[in-house]
Amino acid sequence: MGCGALLATGCLLCLVIAKNPNxxxxxxxxxxxxxxxSCVFETSKAIPPSKELETIRLNxxxxxxxxxxxxxxxxxxxxxxxxxxxxxxxxxxSVDILQHTHEDIDTLxxxxxxxxxxxxxxxxxxxxxxxxxxxxxxxxxxxxxxEKHRTTAFLMQTPGxxxxxxxxxxxxxxxxxxxxxAVFLVHTGASAVRSALSKDVLFxxxxxxxxxxxxxxxWILHRKGGLRKLLFIYNGSRKVVEHAADRAEMFLEEIxxxxxxxxxxxVGMRDEGTYSCSVSVSSLTWEQxxxxxxxxxxxVFVNADSLSLVEGEQHKLICDMRNFYPLGAQxxxxxxxxxxxxxxxxxxNVFSSSxxxxxxxxxxxxxxxxxxxxxxxNGHVYTCRVEHQSLQTPxxxxxxxxxxxxxxxxxxxxxxxxxxxxxxxxxxxxxxVRSTAKHKPY
Length: 442
Ligand SMILES: *[C@@H]1O[C@H](CO)[C@@H](O)[C@H](O)[C@H]1NC(C)=O
Ligand SMILES: *[C@@H]1O[C@H](CO)[C@@H](O)[C@H](O)[C@H]1NC(C)=O
Description:
The chain is built from 6 helices and 28 strands. The chain is of the alpha+beta class. It folds into 3 domains: 185 residues, no CATH class; 106 residues, Sandwich (Immunoglobulin-like); 106 residues, Immunoglobulin-like (Sandwich). The chain is elongated, with a radius of gyration of 38 Å. The relative contact order is 0.09.
């Protein structure tokens, strides 16, 4: 029975996995405990008059079982009678589609879709070639909801099992099972990698195939501006590296074990973008992508630790953020009484310098304001709080301000007056001493 018939029933789909004993050992315990994973089955159907393709999504479930599929089906039906419906049974194969999924099922996202090749027949060693390939291949993607990893498997329909089941329940279309076998998968780690400048970055990519095969692995960087850069090509049939960009390496001795990871040395801003790991075997090619984002933490300085000011004195308080990447650092100046538990107030009338870009691509700028010391500033702490995507918690730098009472102008004038009076008296005295000396009679 084809997909159309499955869709016509419009009901839920189930995927039953008949695990091989080795496979179950690596599956996560909660995955194993529940033996099922909710999936979405996606396919497209031609709408009769226009023949336009419409995408159809159905709820589906991925069921894992260490037992025979029939037993899994039975125990499941007892718990959830409504799930006694069409299902895919993934037969035992050397390609374990769960080998990289260790997490709780709640953190896993699963999608299954039909795989079409319009003009080329998929030829797969050791498998029967069928007349129409449109209904014999499926793709199943299991992804971490926080994008920590993604596994995509090609599932091939196995005709024998399918027929036997149809014979078993000829009238009950709703209980139709489609038996499939995983023949090829590609796995990647986190979909986004962050790295500091000049570090070496490992882009994890792995594959698994149900037979000994020559694979070709190709790594391509799609830069943010749309430029495409070929990084690495390993040709498995000739066992040669056909291309290796500067600073890009693969672990050649590990490729036969399914390791297609790429190591890029001393990354810089020009390496930012989307990395695609593409694995080809026979007539199938699958690629998965990983983003690289460079991040540098700002170094933050303020222009003093503490200030001792006289009332009325002006002082520029500067917060300098240096060598961060990418743009987008935010800084606020806060004012609070030392030791107080009150929420600090945000200083207003703060200015920004323009951004300076250094030769390595990092940015620097400062935020400053002019403090006119008043007595109510005494004992206050001015804190510069910096936030940036590279920081888990904001950076804080503080200046403690002491302000003492100013000498008033009137007082200053009085002092000056007093001094001049003294000076006048002194000068007069000196003058008198000199004149008496002049008139000495010898
Ligand atoms: C591939 O091999 C490298 C080097 O041994 C290792 O660091 C990396 O984790 C491996 N990756 C995978 C996906 O197995
Ligand atoms: C970038 O350049 C600046 C000065 O040009 C330097 O202070 C900073 O350490 C450099 N950053 C890195 C990560 O190399």
